[in-house]
């Protein structure tokens, strides 16, 4: 499976997935820490990938998404954005709506 197929598979299998540096319990950068806090505050389960564990994925996802930095949050296979966008959506309440909607679709 090439890296693009791997990314597509991860996005299809996980309605909410965060590509980040580190893990939710031990983020490896401040941007990932703030982003994971915002996602966790929504109260729904989400998947994560520590991009520091896989150099090929780290580079491949940048090309796949046309987004040069991490973290990257995807909801229903669509790139939401990085830290600043996620925090703005969190403050407005839109992030919780998006994530809760994705979680409900998965349950259905």
Structure commentary:
The protein is α+β, with helices and mostly antiparallel strands and 108 residues long. The chain has one domain (3-99): Glutaredoxin (3-Layer(aba) Sandwich). Helix content is 53%, strand content 16%. It is built from 5 helices and 4 strands, in the order αβαβαββαα. A 4-stranded mixed beta sheet has the order 2-1-3-4. Helix 2 (30-40) runs parallel beside helix 4 (83-92). It starts with a helix and ends with a helix. The mean pLDDT is 95. It holds the Pfam family Glutaredoxin. Keywords: 2Fe-2S, Iron, Iron-sulfur, Metal-binding, Redox-active center. This is Glutaredoxin.
Briefly summarize what is shown.
By secondary structure, the chain is α+β, with helices and mostly antiparallel strands.
Structural topology:
Blueprint: H1 3-13, E1 16-20, H2 30-40, E2 47-50, H3 55-65, E3 72-75, E4 78-81, H4 83-92, H5 94-107
Helix pairs in contact: 1-3, 2-4
